[in-house]
Please model this.
Amino acid sequence: MKKIFPIEIAEDLHRQLKHAAIDSGMTLHAWIIKVLESNVNHKGIAFKKKTRKHDGKPENRES
Model:
């Protein structure tokens, strides 16, 4: 399932991002997704999903 994540950024930063995307031959959207994925994968961030144990307390589980 895809999620929408609107953000506000300075006009100058938007311009810089757009030029970086153009230089890479990508749309701004595709370039931002690539950079975010690369950054998360590079840092080895594991996504954890909260579940409930039988005693009702939260339990973290990797997904």
Notes: The chain has a mean pLDDT of 82.
